[in-house]
Specification:
Elements lengths: L7 H23 L7 H24 L3 H13 L8 H30 L4 H15 L4 E5 L1 H11 L6 E5 L6 H10 L5 H10 L3 H7 L14 H13 L6 H8 L4 E4 L6 E6 L4 E3 L4 H4 L5 E7 L7 H8 L3 E4 L4 H9 L2 H9 L4 E4 L14 H12 L5 E5 L5 H9 L12 H6 E4 L11 H10 L7
Parallel strand pairs: 1-2, 1-7, 2-3, 7-8, 8-9, 9-10
Antiparallel strand pairs: 4-5, 4-6
Helix pairs in contact: 2-3, 6-8, 6-19, 7-10, 8-9, 13-15, 14-16
Length: about 450
């Protein structure tokens, strides 16, 4: 049996209460510290008061004296001195005039906002969000794949000062086909990161749309094709960065580790060498990857990337594949040197699982040592997940040859650097963006001079 409908009066009262709370919330946001509204409101009121005094002086001492006299006499006639002092009536008129001025400005802003396609009710939230995000910590995130885009989608809620440095050596799938056809850098991981940081929900959705049919289109994402178009039009993605950030309304910045095409090469423990990261998983076999290199090795980095690293308050590696997402971005000489020289804390977000054929048999210690060996700097902190995925999920990964990475058996040095937190999504073996972002926000940032 359904509940009886509320009386009409009760419904109106509830709506009134809801509207009152909404107005209170908006008022609190307008008056929040740092939003840049209170100072101008106070200045407006001060100037209005000074203007009123000046106008009074002009009318009382100038040619309009007779008008001021008649106004005062009429106002006095409407006011009983024994009930309300004459000056209180004057204050009341001033208050009404000020309220009218503020109302007219609010209506003017409403009309201008609607003219630009912005809902007035959303304007205060947008201003508040942008002001607070602009004061967020400067974070540089390095890596690639779904892990990095996952992290970015969590960080974007806390800061707008994000710089993603993305590995571009992928040679499989859509990225591989575009690389081979156009001799460009791999766009796939860039597309994922642009979508994660875009302030346009429509563009973020379109960027990730993958064509399922069409000769030459099947398998490509719209984002990859857009980046390929810009690269072709402007002679490389390096020249197209500004256009991409503006078109997609990126919150922060996304840059490739290098704008020059490169091939990832793996040297194995048995002496073999594998060219192309898409071949690693199936050709490593029983051996282990001892080192990865870029060919050509001396790749240039974008000046904006180096500037971001030098000004960073925090540098985050991962989450992502160790040898095909994180380390390739660190192999660009200028990027590695900039990270070694900065005093910003270096944080490694440890993978949840080993990856069959790439990191099979490697411990968490081995992951950290591989980063140290390739970068020349050991992470200051290692974020390690402390929550256990469901047993069914662990079993599913185990059947594919992947195993959980934990601190069990780790060295004393790693234990001293490790921070254990529950970082996974419920019921999955996947990092939770919100949990990751909160963990990084709680970590001490470098104090800038």
């Amino acid at each position: 049996m359904s509940d009886p409908p509320l009386p009409r009066e009760t419904g109106f009262r509830s709506e009134a209460v809801a509207r009152g709370r909404h107005v209170q919330r908006r008022a609190k946001i307008w008056l929040a510290p740092g939003i840049g509204v209170k100072r101008w409101l106070v200045l407006f009121m001060l100037c209005t008061f000074i203007g009123a005094v000046g106008f009074l002086h002009f009318t009382w001492t100038g040619p309009l004296h007779f008008i001021a006299t008649r106004w005062i006499l009429r106002l006095n006639a409407l006011t009983r001195p024994e009930v309300m002092p004459l000056y209180v009536a004057g204050i009341g008129v001033m208050a009404l005039a000020l309220m009218g001025a503020l109302w007219s400005i609010a209506m003017l802003n409403r009309s201008m906002l609607r003219g630009t396609g912005t809902e007035p009710s959303q304007a205060v939230d947008i201003i508040y969000e942008q002001r607070n995000l602009a004061r967020g910590p400067r974070i540089v995130a390095v890596g690639g794949g779904t892990g990095l885009s996952n992290l970015l989608s969590g960080l974007r809620v806390y800061t707008g000062n994000i710089t993603a440095v993305v590995a571009v050596s992928d040679d499989g799938g859509s990225s591989g086909r575009l690389r081979e056809s156009l001799d460009m850098i791999a766009p796939g991981d860039l597309t994922d990161c642009y979508a994660a940081l875009s302030d346009s929900p429509v563009m973020a959705r379109l960027m990730l749309h993958r064509f399922q049919r069409g000769d030459g289109l099947s398998g490509h994402t719209f984002g990859n094709l857009m980046l390929a178009t810009l690269s072709e039009e402007q002679g490389g993605l390096g020249e197209a960065m500004k256009d991409i950030h503006e078109v997609l309304r990126i919150r922060g910045r996304v840059y490739p580790a290098s704008t020059c095409p490169t091939t990832l090469v793996a040297r194995l423990s048995d002496g073999r060498e594998i060219r192309g990261e898409s071949r690693f998983a199936e050709q490593v076999g029983e051996a282990r990857i001892s080192r990865v290199l870029l060919d050509p090795p001396e790749l240039p980095a974008l000046p904006d990337v180096l500037e971001a690293i030098r000004g960073a308050e925090q540098i985050v590696l991962g989450p992502g594949s160790l040898f095909t997402s994180i380390i390739p971005a660190l192999l660009v000489p200028d990027i590695a040197q900039a990270i070694r020289q900065t005093s910003a804390p270096l944080i490694y977000v440890a993978s949840l699982m080993t990856e069959p054929g790439e990191t099979s048999g490697l411990s968490l210690d081995d992951h950290v040592q591989a980063i140290t060996r390739h970068l020349g700097r050991t992470p200051d902190c290692v974020l390690v997940n402390s929550a256990d995925p469901p047993q069914a999920v662990i079993q599913h990964y185990a059947e594919a040859g992947a195993h959980l990475l934990t601190l069990n058996g780790s060295s004393r040095d790693l234990r001293g650097r490790a921070t254990l937190l529950p970082l996974i999504q419920t019921g999955q073996a996947r990092h939770d963006p919100e949990a990751l972002a909160q963990a990084l926000m709680a970590f001490p940032h470098r104090q800038q001079n």
